[in-house]
Inverse folding.
């Protein structure tokens, strides 16, 4: 009988030890999982930051004017190399995607100034910069836009050439 | 039913072809089993053991060591990116400076004096009229303020305007010889002028009511107070950006 008890005790202690080991592993896995998530988020942030820094570095060495558009703050800058030529604020459209508009580079694809209409800058299918617009072509109907004051819009329209870069930051 | 019982009673013959019947017949038999509790307790305990303790293989999709190594790699990647970004920021900072610079918005006729991201002063100015004139000989001029990056090449006090040919053409006057005294005109460019090259300047004007419009022959005109402030603030070498 004593021998049986001893075996039961041994098995029980084995069980408890194994359970304790598993608890430790679970705890470590949870900590590692949390750390992994944090690191992935940090890496994403650092990659975005690096992308912006590389863009700035490239533009500092390029002889063309460009835009920095801050979606969160609803502000923008017209820049040439490392100099700010103009700062501006804007009002986003109702269908403005906010965070859905990815950070990164956009290219000014089209400058439009039709007779009787206002100047418009079309940055591909991602964004339109405008003052006011009497006519919106069907192809551009769904594109989110930002509205500037007349003076600012005219300045940008004159300052930027087709092919100019704009960088979206959140 | 009787047939079935018969076939099961001759066990072994139909096992492969009729397994259901066989099990049924086994259930019908009564066995005298002596159940000892100890092995059952052991079995129950074994079954209660955590899966990790029962087998060598981990119940998780990723083995712990691999998980640790993956997190370590991510940490390394984050550190490298951080270092690279620090280097890039340093590089950009080296390219930046705190020097004062001028920006002229030729569309809205505004001159802005800036330092980094800060606006130091804003002034209403005049820029090129965008008018075209042509001489009988075919020579022509278009009065537009140039766009681009310039540098203050010189600073003048009480500048003298040397009337160019277009000034006579514009007023239908005969063009005098190059060094004719009539060409040297005082008190039309204000008290100061900043030279940008190719005859373009930032200077004062007598027609202050026209400031804010396109009325010049290509130079940038400022009111007296703004001109004095800008003149005193900038040095030779100051960058001027016209757009």
């Amino acid at each position: 009988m004593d021998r049986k008890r001893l075996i039961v005790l041994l098995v029980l202690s084995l069980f408890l030890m194994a359970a304790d080991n598993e608890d430790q592993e679970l705890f470590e896995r949870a900590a590692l999982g949390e750390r992994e998530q944090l690191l992935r988020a940090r890496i994403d942030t650092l990659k975005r930051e690096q992308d912006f820094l590389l863009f700035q570095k490239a533009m500092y060495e390029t002889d063309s004017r460009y835009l920095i558009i801050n979606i969160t703050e609803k502000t923008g800058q017209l820049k040439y190399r490392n100099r700010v030529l103009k700062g501006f604020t804007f009002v986003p459209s109702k269908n403005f995607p906010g965070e859905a508009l990815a950070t990164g580079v956009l290219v000014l694809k089209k400058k439009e100034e039709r007779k009787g209409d206002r100047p418009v800058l079309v940055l591909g299918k991602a964004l339109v910069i405008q003052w006011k617009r009497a006519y919106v072509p069907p192809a551009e109907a769904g594109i989110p836009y930002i509205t500037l004051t007349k003076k600012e819009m005219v300045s940008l329209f004159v300052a930027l050439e087709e092919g100019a870069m704009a960088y979206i930051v959140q | 039913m009787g047939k079935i019982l018969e076939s099961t009673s001759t066990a072994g013959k139909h096992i492969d072809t009729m397994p259901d019947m066989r099990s049924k017949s086994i259930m019908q038999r009564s066995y005298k089993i002596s159940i000892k509790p100890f092995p059952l307790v052991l079995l129950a305990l074994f079954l209660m053991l955590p899966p990790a303790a029962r087998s060598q293989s981990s119940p998780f999709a990723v083995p712990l060591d691999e998980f640790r190594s993956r997190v370590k790699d991510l940490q390394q990647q984050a550190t490298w990116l951080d270092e690279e970004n620090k280097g890039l920021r340093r590089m950009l900072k080296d390219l930046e400076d705190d020097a004062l610079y001028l920006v002229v918005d030729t569309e809205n006729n505004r001159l802005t004096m800036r330092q980094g991201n800060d606006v130091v002063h804003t002034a209403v100015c005049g820029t090129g009229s965008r008018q075209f004139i042509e001489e009988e000989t075919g020579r022509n001029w278009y009065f537009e303020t140039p766009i681009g990056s310039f540098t203050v090449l010189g600073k003048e006090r009480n500048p003298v305007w040397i009337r160019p040919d277009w000034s006579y053409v514009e007023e239908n006057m005969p063009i005098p010889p190059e060094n004719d005294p009539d060409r040297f005109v005082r008190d039309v460019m204000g008290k100061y002028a900043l030279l940008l090259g190719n005859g373009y300047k930032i200077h004062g004007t007598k027609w202050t009511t026209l400031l804010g419009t396109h009325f010049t022959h290509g130079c940038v005109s400022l009111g007296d107070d703004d001109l004095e402030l800008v003149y005193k603030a900038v040095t030779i070498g100051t960058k001027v950006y016209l757009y």
About this structure: The first strand of chain B starts at residue 100 and ends at 105.
